[in-house]
UniProtKB/TrEMBL annotation:
Biased segments, Basic and acidic residues type: 199-211
Matching InterPro entries: Thioredoxin-like_sf, Thioredoxin_CS, Thioredoxin_domain
CDD domains: PDI_a_PDI_a'_C
GO terms of molecular function: protein disulfide isomerase activity
Start and end residues of each Thioredoxin domain: 55-184
Annotated source species: Trifolium medium
Protein name in UniProt: Protein disulfide isomerase-like 1-4-like
Sequence similarity: Belongs to the protein disulfide isomerase family.
Keyword Isomerase: yes
Annotated stretches, region: Disordered: 189-224
Keywords recorded for this protein, A-Z: Isomerase
Pfam families: Thioredoxin (PF00085)
Domain of life: Eukaryota
An individual GO BP term: protein folding
Length: 224
């Protein structure tokens, strides 16, 4: 691949997550798993031949795109990238809800405040992780999406199995009920101390609830 070729090389380079002006030797399975391999070494006939033979014999380690691992990750919603996916999402001691999103996705932007509110409510539950990953810049074989946003649930103690695709209304209450039903580790929120409501707040809350409830599974994904 000629990475400085605007017609072909640039789009291929972006897909493979490579940069620089030097020619790159790549391999790609081209089937459903879409595994990618990058030759790393001195470009000689013998080494490229060996690379090709190892590829055909399935001896190579696949390459997956990844943003840099965040220096800090102590927000309510944990940031997942390709290189910390195993550490966060595949932690067998945690139930993990993962949103795979795209920065340009309108449905993802609509979901963001709801998702943040869910994470804020559940931040005291040590066994539960609410996380998100930019699907345009990061890859992992266990994080397959058919559009944005895709929501996947990885139950604790069952990370060797395929994750559960979350198909529910996009509301805090619906997500909470889903997690209560599917979490491997039971959890319970502490009931907050009640405080007097300002006059007229019931009307606003009723209006907000109706607006939030209207977000359902119909037409809630942008295409890849």
């Amino acid at each position: 691949v000629e990475t400085d070729n605007e017609d072909v090389g640039k789009s291929v380079s972006e897909y493979f997550g490579i940069s620089g002006s030097d020619p790159k030797v790549l391999a790609y399975t081209g089937n459903d798993d879409g595994r990618k391999f990058i030759f790393d070494g001195e470009v000689t006939v013998d080494k490229i031949k060996a690379f090709g033979e190892d590829f055909l014999e399935d001896k190579l380690k696949p390459f997956f795109k990844s943003d840099p691992v965040p220096e800090t990750n102590d927000g309510d919603v944990k940031i997942v990238v390709g290189n910390n996916f195993d550490e966060i999402v595949l932690d067998e001691s945690k139930d993990v809800l993962l949103e795979i999103y795209a920065p340009w996705c309108g449905h993802c932007q609509h979901l963001e405040p709801i998702y943040n509110k869910l994470a804020k409510h559940l931040r005291s539950i040590d066994s539960l992780v609410i996380a998100k990953m930019d699907g345009t810049q990061n890859e992992h074989p266990r994080a397959k999406s058919d559009g944005f946003p895709t929501l996947l649930f990885f139950p604790a103690g069952n990370k060797s199995f395929d994750p559960i695709t979350v198909e529910t209304d996009r509301t805090v209450v619906a997500f909470y009920k889903f997690l209560k039903q599917h979490a491997s580790i039971p959890f319970k929120l502490q009931k907050p101390t009640s405080t007097p409501k300002p006059e007229g707040s019931d009307v606003k809350e009723s209006s907000d609830a109706k607006e939030t409830q209207s977000s359902s599974n119909s037409d809630v994904k942008d295409e890849l």
